[in-house]
Structure formats: structure tokens, C-alpha cells
Amino acid sequence: MATLFSQERNLNLPDSDIRYFPNFMGSEDADFYFKVLRDTVPWQQDDIKVFGKVYAQPRLTALYGNNGKAYSYSNITMEPHAFTKELLAIKQQIEAMTSVYFTTCLLNLYRDGKDSNGWHADDEKELGVNPVIASITLGQERFFHLKHKKDSKLKHKILLEHGSLLLMEGATQHHWLHQIPKTARPIGERINLTFRVID
Ligand SMILES: O=C(O)CCC(=O)C(=O)O
Ligand SMILES: [Fe+2]
């Protein structure tokens, strides 16, 4: 039987386990969740410190969770809001597929092409040794870049589409960095949800 998941694409990059599901959500569900989250999430813009200098983060964020545990990265500590019913519904859809039970969701709102997310790995110690990161895209599609930490010949670009899921698992965060680069094209807003497990 052809299922939604039959369109699964394994990126097949060395030292990683990354799969892409372009139609994880139907487009009507994806439209609905984009609108609700856009309008109801208390989006915040934090300052980050890079080499001692303070910058406004080039996107808006919010943290949700079910165990009260904070998440810290780039000198920011975020305290979670309680999950809303929409976020719980998306979380359960991912859990039904992965059998991973997520505690936390970090949301990003990229307002336009000037908003971005610089090179990093999701390797904070509260995520555990081989974290599973489930990343949903709603709204504007954006390129997601990957580069190997040691082998500069290894790099990859993938367009993350409305309603898609990107699943990063295994040793991925040990060996690869990822980013959402800026673009000069006039583009709309994108919401990204990254579900994580924080012990
Ligand atoms: O927006 C994205 O697709 C990536 C977000 C990300 O890498 C993060 O929040 O750690
Ligand atoms: Fe990330």
C-alpha cells in the first residue's frame, strides 16, 4: 500500500542518520497549524552572546515542554510553556511514527529571508548522547544546509517544504553541523518546530 511515509527519503550521508518526509502532514493541516501557531505562540527575541558581543537573535523563538525542564544554548536559557493542544497533536503524530516520546519543542519563526539560524549542532548535554530531533516545517520553504565537521568535502542542501518532517538521529549531531542561511529573495514567514527529549 502506498502510504504517506512511502515518500520517505534517506539522505544517506556518512556518519549520520537523517530522513526526510515531504508530506508528513497534509497541506490543509499544515496551513491550519501555521496560522494557529503564528497567532498564538508568545514569540520572543532573545539576545545571544558571540565572542563577547551581544546580538539580537535573527529569528523569534519559543519553548514548550511537559516536564518543566529548561533548555540552554548559545548563552540563552529558555523556560518552557505548557504544551498547547495543537502542539500535542503534532507531537503525537510524530510519536506514532517514531516511538520516541518527546518532552520539549523549540519553535523558530523566520520572519523573512533576513532571519536565519547559524551553523551549529544540537549537541547540548541535556539532549543526551545520540539525540533524536524531529523538525517540522510550516509556511515558507527554506534551504537546510549540512556540513561534516571534519571532512569539508561532505556537504548537503535540502529544501524543507510546508508540512514536512526532517528526522535527525544516531550520531548525526556528533559529526555534522546544520544551518538555515539567509536569502536575498523576498519570501514569507516560516515556522519550524524541533521536538527533542530533555532528561
Ligand atoms: O529551522 C530549522 O529548520 C532548523 C532549526 C534548528 O536547527 C534548531 O532550532 O536547532
Ligand atoms: Fe538545530
UniProtKB/TrEMBL annotation:
Swiss-Prot/TrEMBL cofactor(s): Fe(2+)
An MF annotation (GO) of this entry: dioxygenase activity
UniProt keyword annotations, A-Z: Dioxygenase, DNA damage, DNA repair, Iron, Magnesium, Metal-binding, Oxidoreductase
Signal peptide range: none
GO terms (BP aspect): DNA alkylation repair
InterPro entries registered for this protein in UniProt: AlkB-like, AlkB-like_sf, ALKBH3, Oxoglu/Fe-dep_dioxygenase_dom
The Fe2OG dioxygenase domain, residue ranges: 101-199
Domain of life: Bacteria
Protein name in the entry: Alpha-ketoglutarate-dependent dioxygenase AlkB
Species whose genome carries this gene: Pelagihabitans pacificus
